[in-house]
């Protein structure tokens, strides 16, 4: 059996938010569960769509449906519908993924996608925020050579959290001031170059490993570990789906 089968409990939570269910206006979709598992198989194995096992149906039909979901932001809506983050405190960090040659060549060129050239070649950076349980709250995509700080503002915008945990790369005056104005605790080690070293909660900082754990789980999905999607919207859709499954485990 090829299918990466969702458990009944997982499917029960996902099903109400799938497009084309029986309660929706218009045509009822054929087997939403099989479709989700087909996309999961592709994202987990990193295989080309043409290699989709026939038990999932015609690969081209599944792919076209996947693209409709991507364009309508269905995967992000699914993630947000099931996102019950515990923001007692939050963690931010970034991770680099290499871009497979199949992930290059989008219309408009690489300048229109979060793909850049760094020491490791063509790369994309995933900047993420996770909650106190290590579940994804939000993410943004950057070109691989961009500094992590470039992704901080969109991640913390309009969010409330008791404390923010991050490594010393995020020790910048504007972020510390922003957190102070929010009434949020900054659990960020000071850079060694600071003339006046400040204190931080070393015990709470130990929990920062949760965001590293999340990145490890995310990269179990091979189509994310090595970006094979030409467009940011498709790559983001893969991350939303993977994060949803990680959250429901």
TrEMBL record:
<feature type="domain" description="Insertion element IS402-like">
    <location>
        <begin position="6"/>
        <end position="79"/>
    </location>
</feature>
<dbReference type="InterPro" id="IPR052909">
    <property type="entry name" value="Transposase_6_like"/>
</dbReference>
<dbReference type="InterPro" id="IPR002559">
    <property type="entry name" value="Transposase_11"/>
</dbReference>
<feature type="domain" description="Transposase IS4-like">
    <location>
        <begin position="91"/>
        <end position="243"/>
    </location>
</feature>
<protein>
    <submittedName>
        <fullName>IS5 family transposase</fullName>
    </submittedName>
</protein>
<dbReference type="Pfam" id="PF01609">
    <property type="entry name" value="DDE_Tnp_1"/>
</dbReference>
<dbReference type="Pfam" id="PF13340">
    <property type="entry name" value="DUF4096"/>
</dbReference>
<dbReference type="InterPro" id="IPR025161">
    <property type="entry name" value="IS402-like_dom"/>
</dbReference>
């Amino acid at each position: 059996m090829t299918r990466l089968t969702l458990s009944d409990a997982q499917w029960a939570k996902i099903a109400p938010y799938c497009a084309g269910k029986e309660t929706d206006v218009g045509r009822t979709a054929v087997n939403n569960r099989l479709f989700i598992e087909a996309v999961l198989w592709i994202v987990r194995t990193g295989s080309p769509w043409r290699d989709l096992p026939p038990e999932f149906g015609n690969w081209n039909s599944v792919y076209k449906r996947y693209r409709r979901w991507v364009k309508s932001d269905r995967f992000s809506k699914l993630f947000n519908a099931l996102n019950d983050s515990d923001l007692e405190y939050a963690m931010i960090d970034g991770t680099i993924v290499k871009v497979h040659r199949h992930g290059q060549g989008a219309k408009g060129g690489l300048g229109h996608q979060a793909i850049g050239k760094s020491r490791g070649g063509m790369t994309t950076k995933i900047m993420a925020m996770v909650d106190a349980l290590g579940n994804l709250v939000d993410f943004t995509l950057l070109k691989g050579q961009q500094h992590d700080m470039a992704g901080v503002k969109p991640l913390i915008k309009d969010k409330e959290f008791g404390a923010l945990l991050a490594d010393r790369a995020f020790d910048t005056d504007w972020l510390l001031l922003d957190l102070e104005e929010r009434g949020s605790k900054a659990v960020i080690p000071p850079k060694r170059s600071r003339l006046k070293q400040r204190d931080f909660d070393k015990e709470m900082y130990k929990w920062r490993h949760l965001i590293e754990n999340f990145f490890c789980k995310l990269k179990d999905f091979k189509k994310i570990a090595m970006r094979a999607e030409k467009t940011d919207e498709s790559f983001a859709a893969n991350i939303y789906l993977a994060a949803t499954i990680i959250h429901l485990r």
